Amino acid sequence: MQPAQPQDESELSALLEEASKEERPLEVIGRASKRDYGRPLQVEGSVQLEAFSGVRFYEPEELVLSVGAATPMAEIETLLDTQKQLLAFEPMDLAPLLSGAMAERRTDSIGGVVACNLAGPRRPKAGAARDHVLGVEGVSGEGARFKTGGRVVKNVTGYDLCKLLSGSFGTLAAMTWITLKVLPRAEKTRTLLFFGLEASTATALFTRAMGSAYEVSAAAHLPEPLAAVSRVDPIREAGGSVTAVRLEGPTPSVMARQAGLRRLLGDLAALGGELHAQRSLQFWREIRDCHPFVGRSDCAIWRLSLPPAKAVEALAALAPAPADAFLDWGGGLLWLARPQQLPEIPGGEALLAALGIHATLVKADAAVRAAQPFFLPRLPATTLLAERIKQSFDPKRVLNPGRLYSGL
Fold it and tell me: Between β-strands 325-328 and 333-339, what pairing exists: parallel, antiparallel or unpaired?
């Protein structure tokens, strides 16, 4: 069946209103790069939002951009690059991980990024995608058109629906237009590398570096088998684990902070090297897009958010093999690979709850995604809240039903 392709908000509203009356579930599609992210859908049709693409306005001096939800991320990045600006939350591109192959150009849309609340290595410093969304226009599951937020942060009053829609995976509304805050690109970037550290030493280094006054913008740790698959020469040829810490900003500031950080961390590890400019950019894109696990078709991939202080304990309990996990967000994010035939997290929900971990099943075969909860641990209060919110936006369960929770 060909997807419905509304050309404007009026057509989209009429389509969803009719689907709600008929209780006909639909899949909401932007660029279709994340169709396999989340639980499999049981729908009777789909709605393609590709018509909602393009730049409504871009005001570099005001640091604000408004675009259609289906606008390709590749176009947005190219546009921002002309003004030496960027989306500071470093939006992750899930397409390589889900498809199993790296691409030269992004194929995802800004609507998918916001709907899944995807952020990269700069997340601890810059915040999540939802923290950079100023305004959203869209249509609810009942066909009601709405607008929330505005062009500046102070326009957000009352319920902040921008944050609610960010991370809703298209289950609450079909977003049509999104207004975002943008920021200047850093003048200089330096990534300090430390080779051969154990995870415990790496996390101690993270704690000291990210708690310092040197404004670290990213910190990650790769065990040797995962460092060896990098396309960045110094990482691939390290011959051991790689721990990386990034500094960004004006040139004099970066150079001064780099010298200070070296002194601060000197007793923990000898500096293994540095990445400058393009190599630094390429490495952090690999971390951002989970490159170490791209092509692992035999694995289910979990994304675990946790207290950095629990990172070493979590690694010991969940990833006995070095090739099974790596750390981002200064230890606050753990990527975990599990065999497709044994996708369950060792220790189950009790261990996750004890360690304060929130787990998301990012990639797996359809059968695994249907059998496994998308989020763990399952909390009754969270499920009840999700049900109430879904009832308010989409009472007939029209939009992406079942993608996050069974029956929703």
Answer: antiparallel
Q: Is the Cβ–Cβ distance between 137 and 176 less than 8 Å?
A: yes
Give the whole-angstrom CA distance, residue 227 versus residue 350. Answer: 31
- What is 185-207 written as a DSSP string? PPSEEEEEEEES--HHHHHHHHH
The letter for the amino acid at 345 is I
d(CA 291, CA 101): 9
Reduce the DSSP state of residue 298 to 3 states and report it.
coil
For residues 260-296, one letter each, b for 16 or more C-beta atoms within 10 angstroms of the residue's C-beta and e for the rest, the string is ebeebbeebbeebeebeeebbeebbbbbbbbbbbbeb
CATH number among 3.30.70.2190, 3.30.1360.120, 3.40.50.720, 3.40.50.620, domain 188-288: 3.30.70.2190
**Residue 366's closest CA among 31, 42, 33?**
42
pLDDT tens by residue, 352-408: 999 999 999 999 999 999 999 999 999 999 999 999 999 999 999 999 999 999 888
Q: Among the CATH numbers 3.40.190.150, 3.20.20.370, 3.30.465.10, 3.20.20.70, which is that of 48-184? A: 3.30.465.10
Pairing of strands 26-29, 45-48: parallel
Contact 399, 171 (CB under 8 A): yes
Mean pLDDT of the chain: 95
The whole model's pTM is what? 0.95
Q: Residue 4 CB: number of other CB atoms within 10 A?
A: 18
